[in-house]
Amino acid sequence: MERAIEGYENALIVYTQTDFPVDWAMTQNNLASAYSNRIRGDRAQNLERAIEGYENALIVRTQTDFPIECLQTSRNLGNLGFTQGNWQLAISAYQTAVTAVETSRSWATNDDRRQEIIAQAIDVYERLIQAFVKLGQIDKAIEYTERSRSRRLVDLMASNDLYSDGEIPLLVQQYLQQFQQLQQQIDAERNSYGSDNEAESRTVSSSTRSNREALEQYSEIIQQLEAQKQIIWAKIRQLDPILAGEIKVDAPDLATMQKLIDRPDTAILNFYSTDEDTYIFILFANRPPQLHICQGQGQATLQNWIFENWLVPYVENRAEWAAKLSSLLNELSQYLQIETLIAQHLAGIEELIIIPHLYLHQIPFAALPINYCYPTATSVNLDLSTVTYLGDKYRIRYIPSCQILKYCQDRSPVFLSDRGTVEDADDTLVGARIEGEKIAQMLAISPEYRLVGKRQATVSNYRQVVRQVNLLHSSHHASSNLLKPLESQLLLADGRITLGELMTPAWRFPKLVDVFLSCCETNLGLTKITDDILTLATGFLCAGARSVCSTLWTANDIASAIFSLFYYQFQQQNYSRTQSLQQAQIKLRNLTGIELQEIYQREFVAQYQQTYKDLRQAKANRDREMAGTDAYLQAEEKYQQLSMMYHKSAEFKKALDLLGERAHPFAHPDYWSVFIISGLS
Hints:
By secondary structure, the chain is an alpha/beta fold. The protein is globular, with a radius of gyration of 28 Å. Helix 3 (43-60) packs antiparallel against helix 4, helix 4 (67-83) packs parallel to helix 7 (122-134) and helix 9 (151-161) packs parallel to helix 24 (536-543). The chain has a 6-stranded mixed sheet, with helices on both faces. The longest helix is centred in the C-terminal third of the chain and has 31 residues, at 593-623. It folds into 4 domains: 170-238; 254-405, Nucleotidyltransferase, domain 5, CATH 3.30.420; 411-591 and 670-679, Rossmann fold (3-Layer(aba) Sandwich), CATH 3.40.50.1460; 593-663. The termini are far apart. It comes from Merismopedia glauca CCAP 1448/3. InterPro entries: CHAT_dom, TPR-like_helical_dom_sf. Pfam families: CHAT. Residues 187-211 are annotated as: Disordered. This is CHAT domain-containing protein.
């Protein structure tokens, strides 16, 4: 170390600031690092020399001229101050580093590089937030949590809002057309081979050689087409004014965040996990923010626990995960100190806006218990009627960041005059079919805005309807892709709508206000360190929706249908979205097996019997035709469709009978807490 210091000092004789400013700054930085690690001599003097060297280097390594080098040196200086408990020095240096990061990010012209820049400097944001907390500057800590999270999603929303008038540059239109054509080719490949589930269920060991070769070829073609699609996506994004640096998107300050709270009984809970702890910043409309610290529950503990005990088990064995769900929620409630949080900070509050961090995005906060009555609850048959949940006490909605909430609020108000539904797109979801019929009756939805079954719920019809309505209720299959989030998809009769499509300018719907995604996994996503939650739900927020109701996991067909009906019943009583969600969850949870049998089973049995009559008639119609003729083939197609629906109805009836035998069939959180609201209340 001594020889290194001597060498750097000798180099500075030649590398002067005037003649060789870049080399001089580099040497000053290296000399400072050597002094900060020096063992010999007086420690205080060594640190003073280190600080002096870093500050000298920053004379040349400025945020605008050399942002990468500025980040390196200011991070070194900040770390020095942080380890010494010199919080003011740490804050000053880290603020310089953050400005350098954001300058460097603004120069990057693709999304991936922008994400890398934030990810590589996330420790700077984290330590800066910690330093502000140490000095009691909660307002500044909150502002920097906002600057560190969901930046990609913010860019996408800002970009799409630029196209609200529908005017898209010609070159972007051409790329969008290519993007859509590639998706159509992917859909055609999948349809020609069979459904995704069929393809995945064909194991190599049970296939013939030709089947193995066909599957390999199928997979290779799909991968090639998806790779081409990603290239087109990157080209579209590179033409974006935000990425091109023509428009700068600034994070809001605390005063702007507080203005987003439109009621005095509403609070924002802003979660942020450092390595050691999890901070819960509480923002109010008209009083200073507060901070609750869950000590010892940081990324290494709490966030890792959620990943290992929540996400991994859900992916590997959903049934086992569901059986342990109540105990997991109970444990998580204790880790987050929910009862203490309520007692110390939430007096007079009735609505919570949750801004999760990292894996907390996957948690149904409404189902966190606030009395610990079942520490070992692991069965769906347990009596959970004595449990009080966070959702009983508060109306709850989610938002990825305050800036995204501001985008939702700033959109022009639209009267809910036109409503539409997309129902049971592949003729396999009996509950979705009943759900759609009842909602259409309840909301007086015009037949032209109803897409029912395989014949109507096509991709092109979906695109047309979503452009025309203010409220869209989608009840069909969907799936989340945790590894490739832009490939998460809505599954329709003849193809798919991916998240990547939803986030392009082609999917910009300024008239769209409410979206209810009564589909599986529409808000399930694997967040990286940059905390961008890319899901189908956030895709619709990008597309223009003000509010989205979505699901955190695979939803039960029967429970989803009944929950949706309850939700719209409360909406018709002029309840807000979050009130409707809260009351629908409570009503579903308290529904008895007897009520299920008396009300819903009676209605279903009538439909079941009608399906059987239709099936018999379809068979008779087919048998009257000559085999092999066009008329026979058409009648056969109708018969097969009704036959599948009848068998699905039989399965649905059996499940309904079993649920009806329980005292409270939907009391378990797996059924009622899967739905959340994002966006406006």
